[in-house]
Amino acid sequence: FALLGLGLGYLTSPTTGGPTVMACVVGLSVIGGLWVPIAFFPDTLQHIAAALPTNRWAALGQSLVAGHGNPLLDVAVLLAWAVGFGGLAALGFKRGAVA
Asked: I need a surface site. Which of 9, 32, 33, 35 has the fewest CB within 10 A?
């Protein structure tokens, strides 16, 4: 999530950076099921929510606390998102360095 903030910070202006990051964080939290359980979502949105990093982060914590489940899928999804957010940060940094 820090890489997401860095990427958006590089890609937006100082005026719009804060609101953009907050919109992304709140959006990921709502759609990822942190505010309302995804069981209440329509089927399509449940599948989308299960692939988001916020949902996988919560699922990883819940499985570790409960002592059951397979956290490897959660870790794999989180690593994939970290690579994606890192690519966004690198792209933003490169774009900022050229300008």
From this structure: 35
